[in-house]
Structure formats: structure tokens, C-alpha cells
Design goal:
The protein is built from one helix and six strands; from the N terminus they run H-E-E-E-E-E-E. It has 79 residues and is α+β, with helices and mostly antiparallel strands. It has one domain (19-78). The strands form three sheets. A two-stranded parallel sheet has the order 1-4. A two-stranded antiparallel sheet has the order 2-3. It is globular. The termini are far apart.
């Protein structure tokens, strides 16, 4: 993954069809962000599930991310 010229990234959504893919994408974004000294705020990071149960929680730096029922992304409500 390549991140170019980012001093601040306010909003990001990762989409995935499996929990394994979501964990891999989360790890990849965390590594790319750390490489350019960007921090991901774990308290503002959530997981929204559709038609599935989360049997293995998604983690960021070994902390489990909270599940969300609804959230706002760039002014749009997603539920």
C-alpha cells in the first residue's frame, strides 16, 4: 500500500468480505501510516458488520476495535 503526501488523514473506510481480509487491511493501513508518522485514533475506529457475526474481533495494535451499529462518514449516515 502506498500513501503519498499525507500530513493528516481524517476519514477512511476499509471494505472487506471476510474478517481475515479486514484484519489484513487494518494491519496494512496501520503499518503504512506508522511509516509516515501518522497515528490511527483507536477510539474513533469502529467495525460495522453486515449479515455476519464477528467471531474473531478486528484489532489495531493488539486492541480490539469496537463494533458500531451506525456511523457517519463524510456527512453520510451509514447503517
Amino acid at each position: 500500500m502506498q500513501l503519498n503526501d499525507l500530513d493528516f488523514a481524517g476519514d477512511l473506510i476499509l471494505l472487506s468480505q471476510t474478517q481475515k481480509q479486514m484484519q489484513e487491511k487494518t494491519n496494512s493501513v496501520a503499518a503504512a501510516s506508522a511509516a509516515v508518522v501518522l497515528n490511527i485514533h483507536k477510539g474513533k475506529s469502529n467495525i460495522l458488520l453486515y449479515n455476519t457475526a464477528c467471531t474473531n474481533p478486528i484489532t489495531l495494535d493488539e486492541e480490539t476495535l469496537e463494533d458500531a451499529i451506525i456511523f457517519t462518514y463524510l456527512g453520510s449516515i451509514i447503517d
